[in-house]
Specification:
11 helices; about 80% helix; mainly alpha; about 260 residues; single chain; about 0% strand
């Protein structure tokens, strides 16, 4: 591969990422799940379960909203990734993806464009959610470094979710199926310690949590925001999200090539 070829593929990926972001930010069916639903759940949980912070052994992070905002960020990354997959399924049904696959560009660049778009959206979401939580009393002892680590974790996690959603969209080509995957997002969310410490989960969820990569992401976000190693490890969160992204990207590229051979 020549440097010129690589530069071309990077431009293709960036152009597709920009297009994906514009589509997601212009359409209410994509924008509402990505931003509004996590904020609504943040408000419901922070007002309805704040007394949990008084339980013995509950971590002291100041305002309860400061503890659960990590779960809100992870929820946002799930929705950012899924809506990216929904947008890809819409492109497949509309014929746009077929035209892209007929172009002389790398299949990896086509997948990476969707991942980069979702990753950017994940970082933006994290900043929005942190700002809202700050307004309502959250404080971040980790400072600017902790916020930057949180944005990075959110970005990689959103990209990983987008890669997985893209793989499913490419394999099925069904917009309706992708739209019906929203309940699975909540299964992933609530089998991780998104809104309560891991030891406070019921026994079934507590047994599942170590096998859910989002567990390490949300705990890493809390540790970064509150500068408290007892809450988690940002490095473990990044490694879990990066491994998730790498595996999902491989699946997406394979699904892309399978679709090209079938067409």
């Amino acid at each position: 591969m020549t440097p010129q070829y690589l530069r071309t593929q990077v431009r293709v990926a960036l152009a597709l990422a920009g297009r994906g972001l514009r589509v997601q930010l212009r359409r209410a069916q994509f924008l509402v799940p990505s931003f509004m639903l996590p904020l609504v759940l943040l408000g419901i949980i922070s007002s309805g379960t704040s007394s949990a912070a008084k339980l013995p052994g509950f971590p002291d992070t100041g305002a309860f909203v400061g503890f659960i905002v990590g779960g809100t960020i992870v929820q946002g990354t799930l929705f950012a990734g899924l809506t990216g997959g929904i947008a890809m399924a819409a492109d497949i049904e509309g014929g746009f993806m077929d035209r892209l696959m007929a172009a002389p560009v790398s299949r990896v660049a086509l997948v990476m464009g969707r991942i980069l778009g979702a990753s950017t959206l994940g970082a933006v979401q994290a900043c929005v959610f942190l700002t809202v939580a700050f307004i309502f009393g959250a404080r971040y002892q980790g400072g600017v470094v902790g916020i930057a680590e949180t944005a990075l974790l959110a970005s990689v996690s959103a990209g990983a979710c987008a890669a997985l959603a893209s793989a499913i969209a490419l394999r099925t080509g069904s917009l309706q199926l992708m739209q019906n995957l929203f309940p699975i997002m909540f299964v992933l969310l609530f089998t991780a310690p998104a809104f309560f410490p891991r030891e406070f989960l019921n026994p079934t969820f507590r047994a599942i949590a170590p096998y859910n990569p989002l567990t390490y992401v949300v705990e890493g976000i809390r540790a970064a925001l509150h500068d408290d190693a007892a809450l988690g490890n940002p490095l473990h969160g990044f490694l879990a999200a990066a491994a998730f992204m790498a595996a999902a990207t491989v699946f997406a590229v394979l699904a892309m090539r399978s679709r090209v051979r079938a067409s």
